[in-house]
Design a protein that fits this description.
The protein is built from eleven helices and five strands. The protein has 278 residues and is mostly helical. The longest helix has 35 residues, at 241-275.
Length: 278
């Protein structure tokens, strides 16, 4: 039977239903027929791989819009038009507003009085600070896993990293790799056995995901990530707490550096475009 923890009304179903390999889903428009896939990252963050048939309408809306935000289909800073979403779901604006409040709690949108909601846009300083917090939290997870040396955790890591190495070599493997890393990370968090720590990490899981995803676009970057995961397995299996913690920190901070590099490149390109004559 699955162990369950509850935070802000959402259940996190753990490991027994954890699916390591994500399903490739076709892109859907906000105006398309609404459908919530159980492999969507927002639903996964709330429910694990449990079927989302019991989601209330605001939660269905939040899951669909949230997945489009974390996938980059809705760009940072984009205005979320309530009426467009209400029309897509054939509903009033009430459930849409409730959905946007859910997404605001997740850090995916910001609601501005009299100006509506926009997809959250993180500054380089926001990214730096957020990843610094995540590095500290994942060190605590790594310490617990290395102390426990749980066969279940080691098996989960081995299966996940085996698939990561395969995806690292695929030219089109970036999305699947980043989703797998997301699921594997949260699976390890749950197995660490500290519900408060798990709640803190999962509350910060979605906001940086879209940035981390772009940081894994290149094959060399994915290979490096997979190698760090592999080294983490060895440290956990050997009960080497210091190395496990060091690898957890390195993995998170390497992601931060890549994301900051991309943000700087985007800012430079935007500045160049603004200076270019029409």
């Amino acid at each position: 039977m699955s162990m369950m923890a509850q935070t802000e009304g959402f259940h996190f179903i753990v490991l027994a239903e954890l699916q390591l390999r994500p399903t490739n889903r076709p892109e859907s428009s906000v105006a398309a027929t609404p459908h919530v896939d159980s492999n969507g990252l927002v639903v996964f963050r709330w429910f694990g791989a449990n079927a989302p048939a019991t989601l209330a309408l605001p939660e269905q809306i939040a899951a669909m819009v949230g997945d489009r935000i974390v996938s980059g289909a809705i760009a940072p800073g984009t205005r979320i038009v309530e009426q467009d979403i209400a029309s897509a779901f054939d509903t009033s604006r009430g459930p849409v507003r409730e959905a946007l409040r859910i997404l605001e709690r997740e850090g995916l949108v910001r609601i501005h009085p009299r100006r509506g909601a926009r997809a959250t846009q993180l500054s380089p300083q926001d990214v730096y600070d957020l990843f610094e917090i995540r590095a500290c939290l994942y060190q605590a997870v790594a310490r617990r896993l290395a102390e426990q040396r749980s066969p279940e955790a080691i098996r989960l890591l081995e299966d996940g990293v085996r698939e990561m190495r395969r995806l690292a070599e695929r030219p089109d493997g970036a999305d699947a790799y980043s989703q797998l890393s997301f699921r594997l990370s949260l699976g390890c968090v749950r197995l660490a056995g500290n519900p408060r720590l798990a709640d803190m990490i999962t509350s910060l899981a979605l906001q940086p995901y879209r940035y981390t995803r772009f940081g894994l676009d290149s094959r060399p970057r994915r290979r490096s990530s997979a190698a760090m995961w592999q080294e983490s397995i060895g440290a956990i299996r050997d009960g080497d707490v210091a190395t496990a913690m060091q690898m957890a920190e390195r993995r998170v901070l390497a992601g931060r550096e890549e994301v900051l590099r991309l943000l700087r490149a985007e800012a430079k390109a935007s500045e160049t475009n603004l200076r270019s004559p029409a």
